[in-house]
Design goal:
9 strands, three-stranded antiparallel β-sheet
């Protein structure tokens, strides 16, 4: 029933959602959001970036306000009652039923869409129709679910928005993370100023990538991406846990699963300029697999020669850039 309701609501809200929103929408992906961010920074006069990080977003949504927002667009009382029941359902933890007063209940089919509707009203419409007309220069928003970046031409505009944003979010029960929400200079001017001072401009994170200011082969300003260090370590830790739990399975079965994990990593992180990041992940997987295969030798460490022989018979997928370079 939630899937059917989500299809109905998607057909309705796709007419309302703004172009800046990319999360949990048909035909849209995080890579489109990344391409749009790079295009905005490199082709428009954007010099300031405001990173937005919302603390426990899905658990902080005020249900009554969410239902009011949905009621503006949906008049069917039966559908509204169903949605209200779905967002009020609890969850099982260690055999106990826990029910919270806020949030949409993560894991439900309809939760991402409802969370998208909430930020559409809280952030997207407000920024597009209230904030941008009052700014002196250009501004741009890119959002994927609760991960958002605001780009500004002038520092004074960015500072005004950063000052009023916590008040706007608090009105709807949301809290910005004080350390992860930050304003930084990023763009052509910031790159030139940092170069003159003998340093590199500060990077920022978005959708699992660290964005770094760089120079293209033609000498123009561009944006390069790197796998976030935190995401890289988390991915390798997950590989290590899997290898530990399945170290006694046949080597060919381990190879198939590891290749599936490497394929998924390449499909997301295999963006232009990030070959070094996916190569580092590939090498990390190779080292982890050797370490846990060595545990099967009863105290006789596996030499690199023996491990290379295993890799020749059971090769791991090499790092590969999966997404094309988008011309500006």
């Amino acid at each position: 029933m939630q899937k059917v309701a989500a299809e109905i609501l998607n057909a309705i809200y796709e007419q309302d959602f703004l172009a800046c929103s990319y999360g949990f929408r048909p035909g849209r992906s995080p890579h489109q959001a990344l391409d749009e961010l790079r295009t905005a920074i490199c082709t428009r006069p954007m010099e300031w970036i405001l990173e937005i990080d919302i603390k426990a977003y899905f658990d902080s949504i005020v249900r009554e306000q969410l239902m009011e927002m949905i009621g503006m667009r949906i008049s069917d009382g039966r559908l509204l009652r169903l949605i209200r029941k779905w967002i009020q359902v609890g969850y099982i933890d260690d055999g106990r039923l826990l029910v919270s007063e806020t949030g949409t209940g993560q894991g439900q089919t309809i939760s991402p869409l409802l969370a998208n509707v909430y930020l559409h009203h809280v952030l997207d419409k407000w920024f597009e129709h209230v904030v941008k007309p009052r700014l002196r220069g250009e501004a741009h928003e890119i959002r994927f679910a609760d991960d958002a970046v605001l780009c500004f031409q002038y520092q004074e505009d960015a500072a005004k928005v950063m000052d009023v944003l916590p008040k706007r979010f608090a009105k709807y029960g949301l809290t910005l993370h004080p350390e992860k929400t930050r304003l930084l200079a990023f763009g052509r001017c910031a790159m030139g100023k940092a170069t003159r001072q003998g340093r590199k401009p500060a990077p920022f994170d978005f959708l699992g990538f660290t964005h770094v200011g760089a120079r293209s082969r033609k000498g123009t300003f561009t944006v390069h991406v790197r796998t976030m260090r935190k995401r890289l370590h988390r991915g390798l830790n997950a590989i290590a846990q899997w290898c530990q739990a399945h170290r006694h399975e046949p080597v060919d079965q381990q190879q198939q699963t590891l290749n599936a994990k490497l394929r998924g990593h390449n499909q997301y992180y295999g963006r232009p300029t990030n070959y070094r990041g996916i190569l580092k992940f590939h090498r990390g997987v190779c080292h982890i697999w050797r370490r846990w295969l060595s545990r099967r030798t009863r105290g006789r460490p596996m030499t690199w020669e023996k491990y290379r022989a295993i890799l020749r018979r059971h090769p791991l997928l090499p790092p590969r850039i999966m997404h094309p370079w988008v011309a500006l």
